[in-house]
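re: ur question from earlier - yeah i can do the single chain one, its not a big deal. heres the input i used so u can compare w yours
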Amino acid sequence: MSKRYKILLGLVSMLSLLFMGACAKLPDNSQRVTSRVIGDGDDSNLGKAFKPLTEAHPDQSGVFLLGNGLDAYVGRAVLARLAERSIDVQYYMFHQDTVGRLLIRELLEAADRGVRVRILIDDMYGEEADDVWSALDTHPSMEVRLYNPFVRGHSKNLQFITALKRVNHRMHSKTYTVDNQATIVGGRNIGDEYFDADKSLAFADLDAMSIGPVVPEVSAEFDQYWNNRHSYPISTLIAGVKQETVPSGALDNLRAELEQFYQQPQTTAYRDAVDQSPFAKALRDKTVSFSFSEAKIIHDSAEKMTKVDADWKQELLISQLAPYIQQAKEEYILVSPYFVPGQQGADAICKLSEQGVRVRILTNSLASNDVAAVHAGYMRHRKQLLRCGVELYELNEQLKKAEEKLFTWLPGLSKSSLHAKTMAMDKNVMFVGSFNFDQRSLNINTEIGIVFEDPEIAARSSQHFVDHIDDVAFRVELIDDSLQWTGIEQGKTVVFDKEPYTSFWKRLSVNMMRVLPIDGML
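and the output i got, formated as tokens:
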């Protein structure tokens, strides 16, 4: 076979694959069954227990921040055990690791008691657990849907080429709601790295557990996504792709596997925490110290990917969040692991600084960022922000390798790469959610968060930031128009004139990405 013929054959094969990918179509989803939140949770044990608190604080919501990874898992697991009516679960990622399997076991046990469990997962990584989702979906009290799915039986990579406009949009929202009485929103996906269960990698993250009027707001958001045309029942997705239907014993096999896994040594810390930790006891006794204030849930529309009308920008989460930021008079603190403001965002932040607001921003350094391309998008605006008076801080990667300090500027956050997404304005207003201040969160992915006006929590978080930021991050400054990083390690000041703890080749690759027009994808 000649070389020219081989090349031609290769091109034909590639075009055939692309054609097959272009022809890949999602199955008909019009027969999905609509369901709504079970709204009678007021008569549940949770509803009765929280009623004196909510009645004592009319029109206010209670907030309890979950910074510690173990407590964040305990909150979800104990609420599942207390559930009587319903559990609604919505996540971007739901890994099948230690935390993921433990939580699935809790959800399955709740369903065995007759609790209705609805699980909505974005399909960016959802396909990896099709067998698990399919088995759970056979339970009479459980249903699993995948948001904006990939076509089963066709190359996922090819779909990124042939259907990029659609599959580029992801549901990044994260909610966990029980009996329409308690909800958890925040930055955590379900996976070991978000709950301190991964010894090699842990994300510093933050959730808010809430009760009161914000809970039905989260339930309404969940219903909007659950019943949306982009949310596909797992049974619809796999129908006709696999050679046979879900085996009759799949659920029993999964249950047995989960029970066996539950007894493994790596689950001990989580089993013990759910049974014995002070936070677990407070949840069971309904004595959690919620802080009450006016609060509101803000979120993107489930149709964010297809909105084209004149008012669609008003529905964006950032449009709902902007008035709180713009009202800041003295202080604005932003914590965002992925910070790609774009020119419009950088200009808006500079305007705030030039109006006399002290603006401080913490994001990942190049060394701690797990997505180098994101750092390239951030670098473009670094000098502009510094010139207009913004104080920039970048996480010190060495802390997770050596000093293992606590991120005490946000309650309970443990060592490692930054993943929390939060804002504090004037020691009075705070935002906690899934929203990164980057172009994906702004314009592409769907996001959710809670805004609450609580001087106690906001002021405490602000003061922790001020007191401890120098211990965990580098202050980035402009010295003679050159960047300089200053930090404290082992009690001594250290100064770098290059991105700290990065190789020449890593800096070179990021600088090369910096010239590419990719901000809109980051």
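The first strand starts at residue 61 and ends at 66. not sure if urs matches, ping me
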